[in-house]
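TA notes, week 10

Several of you asked for a full example with nothing omitted. So below is the full record: structure tokens for the whole chain, then the designed sequence directly under it. When grading your own attempts, check the secondary structure regions first.
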């Protein structure tokens, strides 16, 4: 990019030549909306409480500066591509051997690697409402077909999902689910993995939000499953992504062929080492987040969510997002997911979460009054 421009006499004319089209047309791959507020210009004066990204509201961890000081000494060298020592440490934490672990610069990169290795020309099964990157990446990878499992009342039935699993395809389960927070215990997930094995398919389980579920348990290792995890959710560091995958050695080897070189930089690596040794900050902040989420569950008693985020709203109140945004809170508008009038919010710190509920509850009540059925009228007796 520092080279000078080629003069007009050195340009190559494309007339009469046909540019090779991409294997997957760009128009087939949808744009994806994500949570989070992008950094604005300095002095913009815009200040909102971000409840859209579902990351640890107490982050970043106190050892980030120490990790940065160590990382800055290594920026003049290429990172270790194998990361064997860190992979082994993650494996010990998971209770699996090194050859069943893969590290990457983000969980999103692992999603791309998994679907890049297994989705081309095959069928991919997704819940009707889930993290939209799975659909986008599957289409970009050349999946033959995307099949969605209906979710009446926003609830996913794993039995129904098992029936939809194709032969030699991929099924995706986010646990706890997003945007609903529905949690599936490991025995149910393993049954889904067994169904995949019987049909020669792969089950991809995304457990990025599992630590926020009180009593949540990982599916750990299963011969028919690949488990993906994002560290930035727990650490509250979405600007420093880092992820790992665990699964059968053959699956991990297939993903590694798709992996970018030097994917784990020095800052992510040192931050991961600190996090693995953390016996205080992560457990304490998770305890606080779960306690705040329990307060919200008591306020929203009919919620499906076992996680620290919740889906609220209805089609009858399309202005819900606008109302909470006007009050200074940023939430995840779920219209792009096919749920107009609904939003997902994550708990923040206790005080800001309670302030948000004071804004949210009147909006939900108004939604019920306007969109719900009116109670039967009582006629006066003569």
């Amino acid at each position: 990019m520092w080279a000078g421009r080629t003069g007009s006499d050195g340009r190559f004319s494309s007339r009469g030549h046909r540019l090779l089209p991409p294997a997957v047309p760009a128009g087939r791959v949808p744009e994806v909306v994500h949570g989070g507020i992008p950094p604005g210009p300095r002095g913009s004066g815009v200040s909102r409480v971000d409840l859209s990204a579902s990351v640890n509201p107490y982050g970043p961890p106190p050892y980030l500066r120490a990790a940065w000081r160590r990382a800055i000494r290594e920026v003049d060298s290429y990172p270790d591509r194998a990361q064997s020592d860190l992979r082994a440490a993650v494996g010990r934490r998971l209770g699996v051997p090194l050859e069943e672990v893969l590290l990457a610069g983000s969980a999103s990169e692992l999603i791309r690697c998994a679907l890049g290795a297994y989705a081309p020309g095959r069928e991919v099964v997704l819940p009707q409402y889930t993290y939209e990157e799975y659909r986008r990446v599957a289409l970009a990878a050349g999946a033959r077909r995307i099949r969605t499992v209906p979710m009446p009342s926003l609830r996913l039935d794993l039995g129904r999902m098992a029936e939809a699993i194709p032969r030699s395809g991929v099924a995706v389960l986010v646990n706890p689910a997003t945007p609903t927070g529905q949690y599936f215990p490991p025995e149910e997930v393993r049954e889904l993995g067994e169904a995949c094995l019987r049909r020669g398919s792969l089950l991809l389980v995304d457990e990025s939000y599992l630590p926020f579920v009180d009593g949540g348990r990982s599916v750990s290792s299963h011969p028919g499953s690949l488990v993906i995890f994002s560290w930035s959710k727990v650490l509250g560091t979405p600007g420093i992504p880092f992820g790992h995958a665990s699964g059968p050695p053959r699956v991990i080897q297939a993903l590694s062929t798709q992996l970018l070189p030097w994917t784990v930089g020095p800052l992510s690596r040192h931050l991961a080492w600190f996090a693995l040794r953390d016996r205080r900050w992560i457990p304490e902040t998770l305890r606080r987040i779960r306690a705040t989420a329990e307060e919200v569950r008591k306020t929203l008693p009919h919620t499906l969510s076992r996680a620290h985020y919740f889906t609220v709203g209805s089609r009858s109140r399309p202005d819900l997002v606008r109302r909470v945004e006007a009050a200074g809170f940023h939430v995840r508008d779920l219209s792009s997911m096919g749920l107009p009038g609904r939003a997902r919010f994550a708990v923040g710190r206790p005080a800001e979460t309670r302030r948000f509920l004071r804004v949210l509850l009147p909006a939900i009540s108004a939604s019920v009054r306007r969109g719900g059925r009116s109670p039967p009228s009582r006629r006066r007796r003569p």
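Residues 41-45, 367-382 have pLDDT under 50 and may be disordered. Use that as a sanity check on your answer.
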